[in-house]
Write a structure and sequence with these properties.
alpha/beta, five-stranded mixed sheet, three-stranded antiparallel sheet, globular
Length: about 170
């Protein structure tokens, strides 16, 4: 999970009269069998517990400057081989608000320098080495899926690492 945006919240941000608007997008078609769509619906349901207004739709139907209507944008990319629409990448690179990328293809964010501007470099999507442990707040969590985006921190002043992964082979 990659989250980019403000690091702190003020009390005023939680006292706003209107609930935050959140956009959740996914890769592939708007069909029941699409796992990206299903994950997006699960995320939208989870966000509903936090009094948010949610919109869910495929990345392919994204319209120029659509992100401006939302307080936060979430993107779920399930497919290993998927080209994120250029229009979305151009727009989101200009978005100063909270942005969260879940799943594959995070390296495509650097087509417009977004990762570099936030002090990160995409190394690769690992789907061979089984990264099966996540270390978070002095706890070890089991990671079930094989796929892991490997990122390098280029600027520790821009990045706060909250969790790390390790493989069976201690890589």
């Amino acid at each position: 999970i990659l989250t980019v945006g403000p690091r702190s919240f003020s009390a005023e941000s939680f006292l706003a009269p209107a609930p935050p608007n959140v956009l959740v997008m996914y890769d592939g078609p708007d069909v029941e069998k699409n796992p990206g769509r299903l994950d997006a619906l699960y995320l939208a349901t989870l966000l509903g517990h936090f009094t948010t207004r949610r919109a869910v739709h495929p990345l392919e139907t994204y319209e120029r400057d659509e992100w401006q209507k939302y307080d936060a944008v979430f993107v779920i990319v399930y497919q290993k081989r998927y080209r994120v629409p250029a229009l979305f990448l151009e727009d989101i690179a200009r978005d100063p608000k909270t942005f969260c990328w879940l799943g594959n293809q995070v390296g495509q964010l650097d087509r417009h320098g977004m990762l570099r501007r936030h002090g990160l470099r995409f190394i690769k999507l690992s789907d061979v080495t089984k990264f099966n442990q996540v270390f978070y707040k002095n706890r070890t969590l089991v990671k079930g899926d094989v796929e892991t985006n490997l990122l390098e921190v280029l600027d520790p002043g821009e990045v706060q690492v909250l969790a790390k992964v390790m493989s069976v082979d201690h890589q």
